[in-house]
Inverse folding.
């Protein structure tokens, strides 16, 4: 998670802001996914279901990040 946080910081520094927001969202979703299996108040089946939901959300934001990164990288230089 520390390595991912450093990557999020690098994207925040270099921008654009929309990519920094997406990178931060990836970090948050990955953390939520990792923590889903550690929730003691839930039974195992509930934790697995929550893990699946977080995994789906993570895949969606990763897909968006990749699509937007391609757009940013393909933009003509100013």
């Amino acid at each position: 998670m520390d390595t991912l946080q450093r990557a999020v910081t690098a994207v925040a520094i270099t921008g654009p802001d929309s990519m920094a927001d997406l990178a931060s969202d990836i970090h948050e979703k990955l953390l939520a996914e990792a923590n889903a299996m550690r929730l003691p108040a839930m039974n195992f089946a509930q934790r697995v279901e929550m893990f699946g939901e977080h995994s789906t959300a993570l895949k969606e934001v990763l897909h968006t990040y990749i699509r937007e990164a391609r757009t940013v990288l393909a933009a003509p230089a100013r």
Q: What stands out?
A: The CA atoms of residues 1 and 31 lie 8 Å apart. The first helix runs from residue 2 to 14.
